[in-house]
Structures are given as structure tokens and as C-alpha cells.
Amino acid sequence: MPAPWDNTSYSTMYKYMKCIKETSFMYAVSSAGLVHEFARACAQGIMDKCTCDESKHLENTKTWLWGGCGDNIRFGLKFTRKFLRRSRRLEKDIRAQVDDHNSGAGIKVSFLQLSPENWY
What we know:
Pfam families: wnt (PF00110). The chain has 120 residues and is mostly helical. The protein has four helices and no strands.
């Protein structure tokens, strides 16, 4: 049995996955989860070359009760896009374009949900 990171096993799995709405949902949810995890890992200092979220969106400091390191959502978005681009197949058939679109939908939703300016 090939190793899970082996490209041949990924290609075989990809070939037999059906293009159905559940698969689309899976791509969107997985992408959103990656954004969150990369942003959180960055804030915890697990990842190199990133820092805490230092945005100035939370202007009302009286309501701000916790002053720790915020999740760097923008880093999570950028890193997820790069990560998914590297793992995609080289050819750009219609299936790859649909998968890219669904991943992009998950990234967009995670940005809208995780951005502090959308919390209030």
C-alpha cells in the first residue's frame, strides 16, 4: 500500500471521487478549516515567518477583555491559498477549476466569520 503522501495514491483517489454537491461541501469546509488552523498555529508561535494579528480593527478597548495574541486571519488566508495551489494537479481541467472554486468559497466564508469587524 503506498504512503498517504504518495502522489500516485492521491491521483487514484482524485480520479474516483465523484463531482457531487457533498464533495463540493467537503472542499469548502476543509479549506475553511485550514484557514482557521493556520491562523491559530501562527498565533501560537508554531509556524515561522508570521506574527500575531496586529490589526487596529478593535478600536473600543473598553470592551476588549483579553489582550493575548490574536489569530492572524490574513496569514491563514494567504497560506491556505498557497498550500492548496501546491497540492493541486498541474493540468487545469474543469474538475480542478470546480475544486478551486469550492475551496475559494470556504476561504471566503472563513474570512467573513473570523474577521473581528464582522463580530458585532
